[in-house]
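During the reporting period the student researcher (J.K.) took over the structure-prediction task from the postdoctoral fellow and processed the backlog of single-chain submissions. One of the processed entries is reproduced below for the supervisory committee.
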Amino acid sequence: MLARGTAEPAAPARRRASLPPRHLADLDLAGRKAAVAELGERGFRAAQLSTHYFDRLARDPAQMTDIPAAARERLVDAMMPRLLTPVREMSTDDGATRKTLWRLHDGSLVESVLMGYPDRVTVCVSSQAGCGMACPFCATGQAGLTRNLSTAEIVDQVVWFAGTAASGALTGAPARLSHVVFMGMGEPLANYPRVIEAVRRLTAPPPEGLGLSQRHITVSTVGLVPAIRRLTEEDLSVTLAVSLHAPDDDLRDELVPVNQRWKVAEVLDAAWDYAARTGRRVSIEYAMIKNVNDHPWRADLLGKLLAGRLAHVNLIPLNPTPGSRWDASPKPVEREFVRRLRAAGVPTTVRDTRGREIDGACGQLAASTSTVSAKTERGSTAVANGGWHSE
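J.K. obtained the following structure tokens:
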């Protein structure tokens, strides 16, 4: 990220989307071998490059001493072009939470966040620059959609952060990235083919991919029913997270505008089919908004909808964004909501809100480009390298 005192990056003007350069992470191993052959090199060079990128987390050609010096620069330039340029990096929680603002090849801006815990390292990645879902309480949704990210732009966020974790830069956390949540900027299932390819690349064993467990990947959605049903047929064991935010259609039509197309019952039916097919518990995401969706009767209705289902409710204290009319529910209201859900037999937890100080918590991404100086002066730490969000 930019050092303290550096001018703020200008927001990119709307433009026709342009494809980023092809990267080895866009391709499976067979595709990489074919691409390397087109460059006049033998196919096994693809496996060597892939090992450096996914296993050794190396990008510098000088480190790739198993490849002849005469071929290194050309192969890296062609197969590992720079996709992400860190513009600004911030940290909080004594260095355990880090957020990076990236500039893409066309000037688009995206953010992603890394959070370290004693037992895991989780990265929250963006799948789109901006978001087209227009949820009124979410800073990203209010910014609108610029474009979809490529498979490699998604994967490269994770690989970059894996390198930061491996360096030991996260305070009090393991040196290996283990969890990925598609809860950053964008609606993942609106960029379906590239997100699924990214999941396959992240979970394939090296040198094909990064070797993460599918069970440690969470894909969120506001409720794109056809895409949920398509995901059900993918033979993946990722966690599905549904951003519900209201149990009744009247309110959800306002909070999650896509509900005007697919109602609560349709969304949950698709989620239960996913759970039945995969055996994976569905995570129901619910932002607690003061005097909007936190009423006791809504807790009871949500409990009725979820009772007996393979589901878990993840309550999210609403995180502040500049100029928003929405506020978080008071703690006594939140506790009563939790009590009622648990009384209905629904497992419920309240999400950790780490990262709020750097606009890195849920719903805040893209909110900080105009407020970082004030945030930094209040005590957030600018860092020179790294970047990253959490479950």
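The committee noted the following: Confidence is low (pLDDT under 50) at residues 1-15, 355-365, 367-391.
J.K. will present the remaining backlog at the next meeting.
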